[in-house]
Design goal:
about 600 residues, 5-stranded antiparallel β-sheet, about 55% helix, binds magnesium ion, rod-shaped, binds adenosine-5'-triphosphate
Length: about 600
């Protein structure tokens, strides 16, 4: 037998069906056994009662007298036989029930209804030999008998002995037993059939239910069992369906929540990592991967990620009812980590990672800015103070010396005024507080104006100034004065940072709907590492040299703000020792009619 078959049969014997069959069979057997025992008992007791009744009816006192008289004769035994024989119908004598005349002394058979008979002395015969009427009263004996002593004076002459072999009763009992056995078998067959039917009726819906439950456990909520009846199984099916419905709804809700959370985790600006209570990583969102510089594919756990900041045990102890915060610097970033324990039994730890790098930078820039401003203002102030003090303390200083000192003081105050003005401009630009004077104007005219103004400066430093302008330069919609300031700032840088006798080239042209102006020089150039920083406030490549040329590092920062306000960009391209090109763009005016200021 194959394993599958064994399993199937094993299942059958343990099944409800088998149990039902067994119960019905046992019930059937029990009923039959009780009925059988009762019936058989009744049959034998009926026969025994009948025997006793017949005996009592025949052996009356008068019969006894008659027998005594008959026994007195010479052939007493024969006479007694005839006398008893006359009552053979009343005594129920037949092939199974015989009567005998026994010797009163020995109990030996003298004559009887049966020719040859050997009768062993039964308790009844022994009683009769002793002068009492003897009879067998126990049902279980293989015979029933009655021995009646026939007395002569005080001596027992003969014994009339009736004996029933119980065969008639036995035959009936046997027949009955057979019938009972037959009905038992039929009953068994019927009970098996019935239990099969009944169990099928009961087990079928249960099997359907079991199958549904199995499907449910695999996540299939679609195929629900139907309730065919409204009995217990019907109620069970209905309850099952309700349960499945609730389960499905709960799962959907949970799924929805999870999706919500996952989406939140995915798109939130902060990184999130989650760990189970033993420190295994449960979740990490892309931002967290990026901030920590790890990949979810790596083998990550609490120890490997945050071990150097705080240990798991410590955290579980401290973060019970409050968040634990830690600063973490990793691969050039300043991160703020917030640890929180979730769940009542230290179920796990959630870490929120906030990127503080920008804030850090801003803070640093602010600090640097304050330091720069103080420094920039302190130097001219110190000069002003010392020159003023010298003049005041030495009343007899020669006049021309005083004039020179006063000029220095004037220059330094001018310088301070310029710095303060530039700073004000910058702060207005940054806080969008600038009053822009927007107008339409031809850019070619503006460039001409600036070049005229710069001419003197160029000549002072013996620079060759080349201006290349495309024809038909467009009209610009913007703040004329500020855009001119951008150009001035860039041109004066070129003048400042190019040794005397250099060449400065201005090139202006149109690109799509943008205006592009670039200023190239043959000057000092800017080292690669400083190039992207020259637009920062107070940033100077060579502090000492810039300062000696009157620079504070604000010109390009202001230029950048103004250019960006006009929808443009400013870039630097430079080679150290060879020269620098600063290019900036800004939007042209839309092509509709409007007042153009010459
Ligand atoms: P300010 O313009 O406020 O008087 P500044 O000229 O020093 O001071 P920026 O115009 O912002 O400040 O320039 C920043 C720095 O960039 C300068 O200090 C200088 O080191 C460098 N730089 C700017 N333009 C050039 C250039 N054409 N050639 C070489 N270096 C330059
Ligand atoms: Mg400058």
């Amino acid at each position: 037998m194959s394993g599958k078959m064994t399993k199937k049969w094993g299942g059958f014997f343990r099944s409800l069906q088998m149990k039902l069959i067994l119960v019905l069979m046992v019930l059937n057997l029990l009923v039959m056994a009780i009925v059988g025992t009762f019936l058989l008992g009744r049959v034998s007791s009926f026969y025994y009662d009948e025997f006793t009744r017949q005996m009592n009816a025949v052996f009356t006192d008068s019969m006894y007298h008659m027998l005594q008289n008959e026994a007195k004769a010479e052939d007493g035994a024969t006479r007694l036989k005839d006398a008893v024989g006359a009552f053979s119908t009343s005594l129920g004598i037949n092939s199974n029930r015989n009567y005998y005349i026994l010797s009163g002394k020995t109990g030996a058979v003298i004559t009887g209804s049966e020719d040859e008979a050997s009768i062993v002395a039964t308790p009844a015969i022994i009683a009769a030999i002793n002068g009492r009427i003897g009879q067998e009263t126990r049902l279980s004996q293989p015979y029933w008998d009655r021995a009646v002593p026939v007395m002569d004076e005080n001596e027992v002459r003969y014994i009339v002995y009736i004996r029933d072999t119980k065969q008639q009763m036995q035959a009936l009992s046997d027949q009955m037993f057979f019938i009972i056995l037959q009905s038992l078998l039929v009953g068994l067959a019927i009970s098996i059939l019935l239990s099969l039917l009944l169990s099928k009726q009961i087990t079928m819906p249960i099997e359907t239910l079991t199958k549904s439950a199995k499907r449910l456990s695999k996540g299939d909520f679609e195929n629900r069992p139907e309730a065919y009846s409204n009995d217990e199984i019907g109620v069970l099916t209905e309850t099952f369906n309700n349960m499945a419905e609730t389960l499905q709804q709960t799962l959907e809700t949970v799924n929805g929540e999870r999706n919500k959370l996952e989406t939140l985790f995915l798109y939130m600006a902060d990184g999130v990592t989650a760990f189970s209570g033993d420190g295994a990583l449960v979740h990490i969102n892309p931002i967290a991967e990026e901030l920590l510089g790890v990949s979810a594919e790596d083998e990550l756990n609490f120890e490997s990620l945050y071990g150097e900041l705080i240990s798991l045990e410590e955290l579980l102890k401290f973060a019970k009812d409050k968040m634990v915060e830690r600063d973490f610097a990793v691969s050039g970033r300043n991160l703020k980590l917030m640890f929180a324990v979730y769940g009542d039994n230290d179920d796990g730890i959630i870490t929120v990672i906030h990127d503080n790098t920008e804030q850090f930078k801003l803070e640093e820039a602010r600090r640097e800015f304050v330091a720069n401003v103080s420094h920039e203002l302190r130097t001219p102030l110190t000069n002003v103070k010392s020159y003023t003090e010298t003049i005041l303390e030495n009343p007899d200083t020669p006049l021309e010396m005083r004039e020179r000192f006063c000029n220095v003081i004037l220059n330094e105050t001018d310088r301070m005024t310029r710095i303060v003005k530039d700073l004000l401009t910058l702060s207005r630009l940054e806080y969008r507080k600038m009053d822009w004077k927007i107008s339409r104007f031809p850019i070619a005219k503006s460039i001409d104006n600036v070049c005229q103004a710069m001419k003197m400066e160029m000549e002072n430093h013996k620079h060759t100034f080349i201006v290349e302008m495309e024809d038909d330069l467009p009209v610009i919609l913007g703040d004329r004065e500020r855009l001119e300031q951008v150009l001035v700032n860039i041109l004066s840088n070129a003048v400042k940072y190019t040794p005397d006798g250099g060449t400065i080239t201005l090139n202006a042209g149109k690109e799509k709907d943008m205006m592009r102006i670039s200023v190239s020089d043959t000057g000092l150039g800017i080292p690669k590492k400083d190039q992207k920083r020259v637009f920062e406030r107070f940033y100077r490549v060579d502090k000492a040299r810039s300062r000696e040329r009157g620079g504070t590092g604000l010109g390009l920062a202001i230029a950048k703000e103004i250019v960006e306000h006009h929808g443009g960009k400013i870039t630097v391209d430079s080679a150290l020792g060879k020269g620098t090109t600063i290019t900036f763009t800004f939007a042209c005016a839309p092509k509709d009619e409007g007042l153009v200021q010459e």
